[in-house]
Write a structure and sequence with these properties.
14 strands; 2 domains; about 50% helix; about 20% strand; about 375 residues; Beta-Lactamase; OB fold (Dihydrolipoamide Acetyltransferase, E2P); alpha+beta; four-stranded antiparallel β-sheet
Length: about 375
């Protein structure tokens, strides 16, 4: 149940992040794509207006009468396709001289209705996009062209050697319809891609999670085995200590009562200028440092010895003393706790405590376990 909740929250978190990032990315791409479409529309209108203005200007230069030029231009634009945009001709007062809809001829553009640009400036794609967006939000209606077409003058170009101006119109309804289709396509792609990315991310999280869960389970199983092993070692240590407390050690005899001249019950030590005989069963551990051998008793007293660890180990009962490493001999009575340490090693905590960490190497762990379980 906890895993299901974790996966659910993971899916929700990933989906939220993906959808937020995807939304801003979609908005940016939509605006850039719309700007490209509008840039093409603007350039096309500008080019058409300039070419027609050049044609009209050349006719005037050739001496053709103004009314004839007007009639010729009217015949040209009357068949214009009005779905995307068209060109009309105004005088300097804004009155329509030529228009694809003959009924509009002679009428004046209303500056409160139709958005026009000054002759020395041009509308850019960003402004065009904002114009369409504001029109949609405010539900404004322009009717400056023909019929029910909603158009806008986006470019003005003067005719040389005349008082005429060519006005390039854009059909805002048609352009808005194109942008709406583009917006829907982007929205569909955004939703599909975000959903797919969220699901793929969830599957990847579950796959990686299951992989690491298996590795963690194996690690926990191994750790549990090590804990059981340490528990058994400490249990063996406890039983061995109890066995020692119940055993009467006799001088010059081993634990089975057999004579053994090598195993000693006492060790001759010295402290400053005094010679002291220390009972073996009172020793906690023996260590050497800088060629100096120190015997530490269970009560914390320390004594020195002239013998090396090898010599002392030869005279101590191996049932109760263990050579932990080159520097330490430990007594079963001096062991307080056993811990796992490093890679298959053991750390021994003594009582009284040692100033240095006592580590049983992995090569001697098996021997140490046998010693405790003897």
């Amino acid at each position: 149940m906890k895993k299901d909740n974790l996966h659910l929250f993971t899916l929700l978190a990933i989906s939220l992040i993906v959808f937020i990032i995807g939304y801003f990315a979609m908005a940016y791409m939509l605006r850039e794509s719309a700007s490209q479409i509008l840039a093409v529309q603007i350039e096309s209108s500008k080019r058409e207006a300039k070419e027609l203005a050049g044609l009209i200007s050349s006719q005037l230069d050739n001496g053709i009468e103004r009314q004839t030029v007007i009639n010729n231009f009217q015949r040209i634009i009357e068949g214009t396709n009005l779905e995307t945009g068209f060109v009309c001709m105004l005088d300097w007062s804004g009155v329509e001289i030529c228009h694809p809809d003959p009924q509009k001829i002679g009428k004046k553009n209303n500056p409160d209705v139709s958005y026009t640009r000054a002759l020395d400036s041009e509308i850019n794609p960003g402004e065009f996009y904002d114009l369409i967006s504001n029109k949609k939000q405010n539900n404004q209606k322009w009717d400056t062209s023909i019929g029910n077409f909603n158009s806008e003058i986006i470019y003005l170009f003067p005719v040389k050697n005349s008082d005429w101006i060519l006005a390039a119109h854009a059909n805002l309804d048609k352009i808005e319809e194109q942008l709406e289709g583009l917006r829907l396509n982007f929205l569909l792609i955004y939703l599909l891609s975000s959903s797919v990315m969220s699901l793929l991310a969830l599957l990847m999280v579950r796959f990686l999670g299951s992989y690491y869960e298996k590795a963690l389970e194996l690690k926990n199983e191994k750790l549990a085995e090590e804990v059981l092993s340490l528990s058994k070692l400490n249990s063996d240590l406890y039983h061995l200590k109890n066995q020692l407390n119940k055993t009467d050690v006799k001088d010059d005899k081993n634990i089975d009562g057999e004579d053994n001249g090598k195993i000693k019950n006492r060790l001759l030590t010295y402290s400053k200028d005094k010679l002291i005989s220390v009972r073996v069963d009172e020793i906690a551990f023996i260590n050497t440092e800088n060629s100096l051998t120190t015997i530490t008793c269970l009560d914390g007293q320390k004594h020195s010895s002239n013998s090396s660890l090898d010599e002392l180990m030869g005279s101590l009962d191996p049932l109760y003393f263990f050579r932990a490493n080159r520097q330490f001999i430990i007594s079963v009575k001096g062991i307080y706790e056993i811990f796992r340490y490093g890679n298959n090693q053991l750390k021994i905590k003594l009582n009284p405590a040692s100033s240095k960490t006592i580590v049983i190497s992995k090569n001697k762990v098996s021997e140490f376990k046998k010693w405790l379980n003897y």
